[in-house]
Structures are given as structure tokens and as C-alpha cells.
Specification:
405 residues, TIM Barrel, 8-stranded parallel barrel, 3-stranded antiparallel sheet, 16 strands
């Protein structure tokens, strides 16, 4: 029996939206679900003890950063979950995003989804700028893998599919991803095709490296990643190619926009095995979660709840607000009306405004906690709506009052 198993509970009648349960060695995830980003084995200032109250079902850690900081301590601790004191389901990425940020993305500050100048108008998700710029000055992608220098000490390192899997085995997450090449959205069709085919070859090598390790195969699932940029024919080809491989689940990564994501995801998810879970890498705003769910995505991850929280961006039913703004100085209401998170139960908008104005470190922590709860609770409500057969009505009601800024 595979270590990760997906059970479908109900499908929405008028879309590909579905509710299910993803079983892992460290617990279950009720889907659709938001997976919190723990890049360096931390949710950026949020203590693990608050995870249950914030409805955090699972986390995804960053292979590149944990490798450079030294995975030996994580191995000694018994895996990334035990290392950070989290007993629930865990994922690790492959380091493939670093192929993008270290290579074609180096020094350009590009989003992996759209050119920077159009992000505000149509980008589905944004990358973490800290992650994308914290690297050395060398990255060379070739058929075998990627060579790069560390941003910590300038030392030379190399990732191949086999090495990525070896590191992820050491990190011990329940779910690991095949090594892939995430291209820039500005890349031409020819390079997108070249990178996609290389991703497929790396996927086979990643899968073989994982299956060879009998011990790890019993306790860790491996998921392939669909690539192909914004080109529908490449996405279809990639989905079909990966569907023919024996992965436990599938990630969908790369370049999207609000104008093409729904159609592409619909097509991709009809090519992927219906009985296996699908994860959308780096999805961003609440409105985009609805797009992904409607297209059949089961789990999502993104840095936005904590990244926006660190700068005072607060998610509410009416849209995102900037709590440092002067209008909230004497606002003694909760951050979000009707919110049951541990922050809103105690603190006011005025208090968080004060924390940001005085640059107290508690401000970003409380804002991040609220945002994580907002995302997790929203996904829980979407799941309930699918089970009750009211997803489309809930989507319409939520988006009619949620103002995109």
C-alpha cells in the first residue's frame, strides 16, 4: 500500500470541484485544503503551538534552504516535522523553483507567473522575493541538473534529480516532489518545450531514485510536476506524459494568468488520473483559490498569508486591507468581522495599527496568524459547500463582496 492515498468524497455538479481526503503517514488532509509554506521549517514567526487554532492541516518546506542550512540536524531529529515540532502532514518541494530563480530569474526579480509590469493586473500568484533573491551569483542548468553557488558562503553545489530525491528522503516529509525546471513566463515556446521535456526526463529519474529506496518508498509519497508554461498544448502533453508514470500524486507549476489558468487547469486535470490528488504550486489570492478548486485542484500552497502579514496586509471577507494605514488608528473593531481566529478574539485593528506604527515584532506575527486562519477557514468553507452541493452559489456570494485591490 502506498504511503499517501486519496479518497474522493463528492464532486460538484457544474465544475471539476471536488472534496476528498488525503491520507498521509502523519495524518489526513480534508480537501480542498491550503498547505502553509514553512520555507525554512517555520511559518515566519508563527509558533507551531498555534497551528491547530489556525486550522493548519499541513506544511510545505523548501528543499534548497534546508539543504544549505544542513539537513543532518533534521535527520537526527527524525524529519522536518519532528524538527519543527509539528505532528501533521508535511511536504517538501524539489528545489526546482531554484532552477528558475538561480538561472533565468537571477537578478531580474521576475515573478514565475507573469512579467513584473503586469502582476497587479492579472497575476494569479506571486513568488517570495526573499526566496528568489537569496542565492549566489552562479547557476548553470544542463541536462543532468543545475550547478549553483550558495548565498551563504559562495560554495559550489549541484542538484540533480537523484540528489534532490536523496535530500528529500533525508528531510523525511510525507510527500516529496520530483525535480523539475520551472521556467520564466517570458520564455519563448521553444524553450518552454525544451524545459518541459527535460522536466519529464528528470521526473523519470526522480521516480526511479525514489522507488529504488525501499525504506523511503514505504513512508514517503512522490508527486510529479506538470509544466509547459502558458501553452495549452504543452500542458496537455506534459499532463499525459506524467499520467503515464507511476506517481502518487501530481503538482502543477509554472506560468499562469487569470486569463488562461482556468481553461488550462480544466484541460490538465482531465488528463491526470482522477483517483490521484493534485496540488497547485504557488497559488495566491483568495479569488484564485476558487479558480483552482473549480478546475479540480485539491491542495494549494502560497507565501502570501505570511508575506502580506509581515507588511500589514490583512485578509477580510470584504477584501484585503492595510492595517498600518491611518484610518485604523482608532478603529477598535476586530481585524475581520465575524472572524473566530485567536487574533480577532482578542485584538483590535487599532492595536495592530499601533504595533506596526511602533515597529513592534508582534504586529507581523499577529497579522500572519490571522491571514493563515483566513486562508485555511476559507478552504474549509469551500469544502463544505462542495459536500452540500452549493459550491457555485458560495463562490458567487463570496466573490460578490470580496474586493480585489
Amino acid at each position: 500500500m502506498r504511503p499517501t492515498r486519496f479518497f474522493l468524497e463528492k464532486k460538484a455538479p457544474h465544475s471539476l470541484a471536488r472534496a476528498g481526503v488525503l491520507h498521509t503517514p502523519h495524518g489526513t488532509i480534508a480537501t480542498p485544503a491550503f498547505i502553509a509554506v514553512a520555507t525554512k521549517a517555520t511559518l515566519k514567526g508563527v509558533p507551531v503551538s498555534y497551528f491547530p487554532e489556525l486550522k493548519v492541516q499541513g506544511i510545505i518546506a523548501n528543499t534548497y534552504h534546508l539543504y544549505l542550512s544542513g539537513e543532518k540536524a533534521i535527520v537526527a531529529a527524525g524529519g522536518v516535522g519532528k524538527f519543527m515540532g509539528f505532528s501533521g502532514p508535511t511536504m517538501t518541494d524539489s528545489g526546482g523553483f531554484q532552477v528558475f530563480s538561480l538561472g533565468v530569474g537571477f537578478g531580474k526579480k521576475l515573478s514565475k507567473f507573469l512579467p513584473r509590469e503586469v502582476i497587479a493586473q492579472e497575476a494569479v500568484a506571486l513568488f517570495d522575493e526573499e526566496l528568489a533573491t537569496s542565492h549566489g551569483k552562479l547557476a548553470i542548468v544542463d541536462e543532468e541538473g543545475v550547478s549553483f553557488t550558495s548565498h551563504l558562503d559562495g560554495s559550489l553545489h549541484r542538484f540533480t534529480p537523484e540528489r534532490s530525491i536523496e535530500i528529500q528522503h533525508a528531510l523525511g516529509a510525507d510527500i516529496l516532489f520530483a525535480f523539475d525546471e520551472c521556467t520564466a513566463p517570458t520564455a519563448k515556446y521553444a524553450y518552454q518545450e525544451e524545459a518541459m521535456e527535460r522536466t519529464h526526463r528528470w521526473a523519470r529519474r526522480s521516480l526511479a531514485a525514489h522507488r529504488r529506496n525501499i525504506e523511503k518508498e514505504r513512508i514517503q509519497g512522490i508527486w510529479g510536476i506538470v509544466q509547459g508554461g502558458r501553452f495549452e498544448d504543452l500542458r496537455i502533453h506534459s499532463a499525459r506524459e506524467l499520467a503515464g508514470m507511476d506517481f502518487d500524486g501530481y503538482g502543477i507549476g509554472g506560468s499562469f494568468s487569470k486569463y488562461d489558468i482556468l481553461g488550462i487547469l480544466n484541460t490538465v486535470n482531465q488528463e491526470l488520473p482522477q483517483e490521484k490528488p493534485r496540488h497547485l504550486l504557488g497559488i495566491g489570492e483568495p479569488e484564485d483559490l476558487f479558480i483552482g478548486v473549480a478546475a479540480g485542484i485539491d491542495t494549494f500552497d502560497c507565501v502570501l498569508p505570511t508575506r502580506n502579514g509581515r507588511t500589514g496586509g490583512i485578509y477580510t471577507e470584504g477584501g484585503k486591507i492595510q492595517i498600518p494605514n491611518a484610518q485604523y488608528r482608532n478603529d477598535f473593531g476586530p481585524l475581520a468581522l465575524g472572524c473566530a481566529c485567536p487574533v480577532c478574539r482578542i485584538h483590535t485593528r487599532a492595536y495592530l495599527n499601533h504595533l506596526f506604527a511602533t515597529r513592534e515584532m508582534l504586529g507581523p506575527v499577529l497579522a500572519s496568524m490571522h491571514n493563515l486562519y483566513f486562508f485555511s477557514q476559507l478552504m474549509e468553507r469551500i469544502r463544505v459547500s462542495i459536500l452540500e452541493g452549493t459550491f457555485e452559489a458560495f463562490q458567487e456570494a463570496f466573490l460578490s463582496q470580496y474586493k480585489v485591490r
